[in-house]
Amino acid sequence: MALFKRTPAGKPGEWYYCLKHQVVEEGPECRAADRMGPYGTREEAGHAMETARERNEQWREDPRWKDD
């Protein structure tokens, strides 16, 4: 049994997207390795996966990162 319970760091009003449970959380509720954020609004957190896909695509298409 652990002497101290570790709680996720964060503040109320910060929004996160939990990758493990695939839900938006306020506060954070899950560990850092399982979440994306913080985001300023619940809506932004809800679009976390879409934002990540768009940024990954931009990175793939960036000529500065192409190894030809």
From TrEMBL:
> Can you tell which superkingdom this protein's organism belongs to?
Bacteria
Q: Where is this region: Disordered?
A: 44-68
Entry protein name: SPOR domain-containing protein
Q: Which organism is it from?
A: Streptomyces orinoci
